Amino acid sequence: MNVKKKIGDLDIEWSKLWQDGIMDAWSHQYIKKYGSITAAWDHKAAEYTKSMEHSNRTQLIEKIEEHSPETVLDVGAGTGIFALPLAKSVKRVVAVEPSPGMLDILKNKAEANNLTNIECINKKWEDTTINEVIALNKGKYDLIICSHALYYITDLHDSFRKMNEVSKGFIYLLIGAGHDTDDSSYSKYYERIYERPEPTFPDYSFLYMTLRELDIDPNIEMLEAYAKRYVQNMDEAIDLWKEDIDGELTEAQRDAIRDYLSDKIKKEGESLYWEWRSKDALISWRAE
Ligand SMILES: C[S@@+](CC[C@H](N)C(=O)[O-])C[C@H]1O[C@@H](n2cnc3c(N)ncnc32)[C@H](O)[C@@H]1O
User: Fold this and answer.
1) 150 touches 122 (CB < 8 A)
2) What is the average per-residue pLDDT within 94-110?
C-alpha cells in the first residue's frame, strides 16, 4: 500500500486542520481588525521590521548558501529578511509578497543597498501561475524559501505542488514550532490579555503530514529562534499588544501585560529590551 493511500485512509484533513487552527488562533483577529490578512501585514510592516532587526532568523542563510544557489524564490518574502542578504550573493531573487506595505520596505531597502537583482511579484502565492514565476527567472529556481508565511497560504496541496513545479533544487519551509522555550507562564496570561482561553495552536507536523499526502518525504530540523525588541520603557512594550487587540487596551489588559513582562524586560546599558525565545521547524526536501 502506498504512503498516500495509507495517510488518506486515516481520513484526517491535515491541511484544513492547520488552516482552521491558525484562523482561530490569530488570523480571524487580523481580519476582524484590519479587513484582510494582506491589510493586516500592510499595517504591521514597520513594527515587524523592527521586531526582526535583532533576531537570529537569518541563521538559515548559512544552510542556504551551502547549496550555492544562483537563483532563489522567496515566498511570503515580507520586508526582505532573506531576499535582501541573499541578493548580495546570488544572481537573482524573486520575492512573492501580497502586502504592498511589506513589499515597499523590501524595495526601499533594495534600492538603498543598490541591489538590482530582486524581482517582485505582488500577489499571494496561491494567485501566482507557474508560468509567470518561471518566466521571471527564465527557468526553474535553484532554491525556494518560504519563511513564516505558511500560516496564511491556503490551498496547501496546490501550493506545495507549485513549489515543486518551479524548483530544481531544495525547498526550505521555516515555521514556528511552539512557545517560548522558557515561557510556560504564557497561557496563564493569555486569558487575561486576550479575554478568552488560549486557543490550541496546530502543530508544524500538520504541514509534514500534508507533504506526506503528496508523497513528499521531507527532513525536519528544529532550530532555536530568538528575537530582541528594544523599547524606551514598559509602556512602549505594552502598547505593542494594541496591534492584535480590538480598540484600546483596558487597564486590566495593561496590568496583565505588565505582569507578564515584569521579569522579561531587561536592561542593556541605557536601553531596555524584551527577548523572546521559541523553536522553529525547518522542513526541507529536494524537488523531484
Ligand atoms: C510573518 S511574515 C514573514 C516574512 C518573512 N518571510 C520572514 O521570515 O520574516 C508573513 C508574510 O507572509 C505574507 N503572506 C500572507 N499571505 C500570503 C500568501 N497567501 N502568499 C504569500 N505570502 C503571504 C505576509 O504578507 C507577510 O509578509
Assistant:
1) no
2) 98
